[in-house]
């Protein structure tokens, strides 16, 4: 993108795509229409979504249930090939996805490119997992004359409930892992970003995944999410979003009729970075800026609380504040923009309220100005405040607000304990050149992803399986070796291969 020969023609093609009017419709039926507007400028309408009603969701689950056995019996190899074909189609339609990521979700161009890359990685990786675990039975030990085998099968219909902050990547991950395992999927995109989800599902169908096997269910959490999770035919739920919504889903699952089913949730975080006096200041500055402010801080992996050893704190804080001043906040379709809008007015209000609280209870270090066009959009410019202790923050603040706390060099154990005490356990950054410090943090910090001497966002599928523990989610890790099997049921077949069959042993 830094090469004008690549960037300029791409920007022209993206400009041309702005004329498109997009639609998201439930898999079956019509539902009710609602306009989707751009978070950076509410005067721009990106398209229309038709929300699924309770009756439509019910019909979709029944159709998916009827189609699932056929999908499961295709086997891992055939499903892998279809997911790989979908990955090719995603790549062929990458620019439409860029355009939608920018306009519907307010992503910067760089984030839009990363988003499509990650979605394609999920499709290819879960395809390879279908091949690895779902094509041959696993032979199990046993005495001579007995053959034992374990096979993985899809469980049935899985509800895939995904967030707006990765409207393509996470949407695709949560849809394709259960598909790889032989399930039918009802994919509920976030209320803010159904148009991206609609294009994704359309490409799945074009790739050859049957229409009833993967269906789009746009709509509200209450109507679509509520009906899906309470449905007696449902065989599992996979969810990424807030910890509160995960609790609500858990309650619905506990009270519903029907089988006991798995719930895979990836939720919030209160992510910290620990910087000691052996860290390299330039590197810390670069990594803090991207961890805290890229994607306008709207990543569950993002850095919220920076712990800096007091001996180096003044210098570090100054360098970070200086680097913040260089960030450009504004229109996400401008390739020079570093920080775009937040997703909607409700998100902005929560962050603005937190900033008001910080103005009263913390020390302001740096706060950028929102851009001129802010009045038509949802902007919360990056902010940096010093607080006294982590216990002052009672919840995750999902935006570009960074807090810093100083700690004494001999109090590393207390810092790690404070981080564990939040109950969240998603990402943790550590900037230190001291091996014993790293060993200590690795042993004691209860987090899912520890990043040492680098930024703490942008987990790569397969190389850095992603997900937390405690209030941050159930696991297994997305993009990791245990994820797809979580959506499968295990069946063991035991065959007596002696001539006499099973009765011989009864008579002996
Ligand atoms: C999320 O924001 O919900 O590592 C999780 C990363 C992303 C985080 C996704 N994969 O930054």
TrEMBL record:
It comes from the Bacteria. Residues 35-488 form the Aldehyde dehydrogenase domain. Oxidizes proline to glutamate for use as a carbon and nitrogen source. In the C-terminal section; belongs to the aldehyde dehydrogenase family. This is Bifunctional protein PutA. It comes from Sphingomonas anseongensis. The gene is putA.
